[in-house]
Amino acid sequence: MTRGLFVLTMLLMAGSSGLRAHEWHSSEQMARAARALLDTLGPEQREVAQFAFEAEERTRWSNLPILMVPPSGLLLKDMNDAQRAATQALLRASLSSQGYAKFVGVMRLEVLLHEAARARFQGEPTGPQQAFIATRDPNKYAVAIFGEPGSEHWGWQFSGHHGAANFTVHEGRVGFTPTFLGSSPRRVETGPFAGSMALPHKADRGLELMQALSQEQQSTAQVSEDLPDGIFEGPGRKASLEAYEGLQASELNADQRRLLRALIEEYVRNADFDAADAQLVAIEAAGWDQLWFSWRGPIAADGRFYYRVHGPRLLIEYNLVDENHDHSIVRDPSNDYGADWLGQHYEEHHPSQEEIRAGVQERMGIGGQN
Question: By its UniProt entry, which InterPro entries does this protein fall under (predicted)?
Answer without folding.
Answer: DUF3500
